Design the sequence.
């Protein structure tokens, strides 16, 4: 290959990486949570393809193309024309297909939960592809400046690392097909449940008695180290439930007990409702809307529990009582949404949830 032809191919490669990265920037703007979704099912074709299938296929194809890019970057001779061919497939086929699936996954059909997860995971792919394209551009510029055709060992490792990260992001998109609405809901609910567990543990630790309070006190002047320890003890004591607040302690113990029951509710909902939510039910608008509302309440409860904890830390018993009542009410509202099975029948969870409401009062 003549020097002028090689330089021309490198220029084409660099121009393509630049334009492709600009396109990725536009995609990220579209995928941003701040971007209002204006597309509805009414504006799409009468029978659009399943967006989860499109995402799966386009992500698998993108993984294959990124593998080719990595090999072309690592092996000699450096062939910019081959890189250009692969990049054009990425920019003209894989990524537009993903974005088309995002547009097809409208909230009025697929629900907010799935739509938002699709946008998050596709955004990750786009961000990692931008890193990959930046690397392609760096290698191309190096070749254009007359550097060695084979990248250095360090650059080789970087190339393989970026490939792995793109693969991981693509696998997250591919996984959406098997997860569907129910699987995503399970993951969210378990995350919120863990947040409640952490809050309960913090409240328990805050209410624990201080040890060593009956030790002899030294009225003399201590060493600098002892003075520092005294200061630390004062700050630690300020972050504990005061001993002269027996009613607040009783209220705390009662709240912790009820929060444990709320935590149990999450486990029951995950097992009896979220894990039984089928892909068929995920295509039924009434069930998808119920799932969106349920996950919204399961997300709000940890936030309410954080506010409850702050009331205890501020020694505000009245506010703590009020917030605990609100937490119970919100929990009951969550139960009402799924008291019956997805088939509209009473089952084990129906009976269990009735007893749960009676016990937590």
Sequence:
């Amino acid at each position: 290959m003549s020097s002028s032809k090689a330089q021309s191919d490198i220029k084409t490669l660099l121009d393509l990486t630049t334009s492709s990265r600009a396109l990725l920037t536009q995609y990220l703007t579209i995928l941003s949570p701040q971007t209002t979704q204006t597309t509805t099912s009414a504006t799409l074709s009468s029978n659009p393809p399943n967006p989860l299938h499109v995402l799966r296929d386009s992500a698998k194809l993108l993984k294959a193309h990124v593998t080719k890019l990595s090999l072309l970057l690592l092996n000699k001779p450096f062939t910019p024309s081959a890189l250009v061919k692969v990049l054009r497939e990425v920019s003209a086929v894989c990524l537009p297909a993903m974005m088309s699936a995002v547009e097809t996954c409208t909230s009025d059909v697929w629900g907010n939960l799935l739509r938002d997860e699709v946008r998050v995971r596709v955004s990750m792919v786009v961000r990692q592809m931008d890193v990959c394209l930046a690397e392609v551009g760096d290698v191309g510029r190096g070749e254009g400046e007359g550097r060695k055709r084979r990248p250095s060992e360090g650059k080789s490792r970087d190339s393989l690392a970026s490939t792995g990260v793109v693969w991981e992001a693509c696998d997250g998109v591919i996984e959406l097909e098997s997860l569907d609405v129910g699987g995503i809901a399970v993951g969210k609910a378990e995350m919120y449940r863990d947040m409640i567990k952490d809050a309960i543990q913090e409240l328990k630790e805050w209410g624990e008695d201080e040890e060593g309070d009956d030790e002899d006190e030294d009225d003399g002047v201590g060493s600098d180290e002892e003075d520092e320890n005294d200061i630390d003890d004062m700050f630690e004591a300020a972050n504990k439930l005061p001993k002269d607040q027996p009613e607040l302690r009783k209220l705390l113990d009662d709240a912790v007990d009820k929060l444990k029951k709320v935590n149990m509710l999450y486990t029951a909902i995950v097992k009896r409702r979220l894990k039984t939510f089928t892909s068929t039910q995920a295509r039924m608008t009434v069930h998808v809307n119920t799932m969106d509302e349920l996950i919204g309440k399961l997300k709000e409860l940890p936030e309410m529990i954080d506010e409850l904890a702050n009331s205890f830390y501020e020694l505000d018993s009245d506010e703590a009582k009020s917030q605990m009542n609100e937490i119970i009410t919100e929990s009951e509202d969550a139960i009402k949404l799924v008291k019956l099975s997805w088939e509209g029948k009473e089952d084990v969870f129906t009976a269990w949830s009735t007893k749960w409401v009676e016990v937590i009062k």
